[in-house]
Amino acid sequence: MVGYTDLHPGVDCVSAWRESEKLCLDLYENPDEVKLAIHKAYEDFLAVYDHFDAMLKRKNQLSVTWLGVPSFGKMHVPSNDFSAMISENHFIDFCLPGIYKEVEHMTHNVWHIDGKDCARHLDILLEVPQIQAFQWVQGAGAKPIMQWVPLIKKIQAAGKSVMVNLDVSELEGFMSEVGPKGIMLCMAGNGEEEQIIKRVEKWV
Fold first, then answer.
1. What's the DSSP call for residue 107?
2. Do the domain assignments include residue 2?
3. Is 48 inside any structural domain?
């Protein structure tokens, strides 16, 4: 499958323009200017997305990006890594309006949660109906996966799906604690693929 390029509009785009530390200060010192910059960062996003989406559709390709989850509609992987550095109030004020604009245009959205600091905004994102799933990235040095089981169960309880990266050695413990509904497991098989599939088939 051929996918469209990774796109980062909104606050992450402004953070790249401005540098994250300066943008953190701007939220307090120049909030109106920040909101204008965020608006500018979204201004052409939907047109750019639709341009690449139309190229794929003309060649009968599914909508897919780096995450590898295809859609017959419009697939998107929204994210906001800058949110790891801000409060919930700032997230609601500066980020959430643009997020709605971003996801409402798409058929399917898998939100990329980049570590525990970004996860502080999970409750807010769970209320966005257009986000159907979350990709949980626990971050370097943040293993084992079992410490994040409560977060994964919270996503499931909200009726959303979740992609989880784990080692084969963690599979048994994970399946004993978490139900299979809405879970997509991502792991390196290391030659054990057939045994893994047989074990997952019995997951209830």
1. S
2. no
3. no
CB 71 within 8 A of CB 38: no
Angle ∠(189,191,197) on CA atoms, nearest 5: 55
State both tokens at 111. Answer: 């939100």
CA distance 101 to 169: 40
Q: What is the 3-state secondary structure of 42-72?
A: HCCHHHHHHHHHHHHHHCCCCECCCCCCCEC
Q: Which tens digits make up the pLDDT trace of 138-175?
A: 876 667 889 999 999 999 999 999 999 888 889 999 99
Q: Residue 50 corresponds to which tokens in the numbers above?
A: 């639709």
Provide the residue count of the chain. Answer: 204
Q: How many domains does the chain have?
A: 1
Instruction: Give buried/exposed letters for 147-184 (b at 16+ CB in 10 A, else e).
Output: ebeebbeebbebebbbbbbbebebbeebbeebeeebbe
The two tokens of residue 192 are 């054990």
The DSSP 8-state label assigned to residue 79 in this structure reads B
Domain that holds residue 126: 62-201
pLDDT in tens, 104-147: 999 999 999 999 999 999 999 999 999 999 999 987 666 788 99
Residue carrying the six token digits 């989406």: 53
Residue 51 in tokens: 């341009």
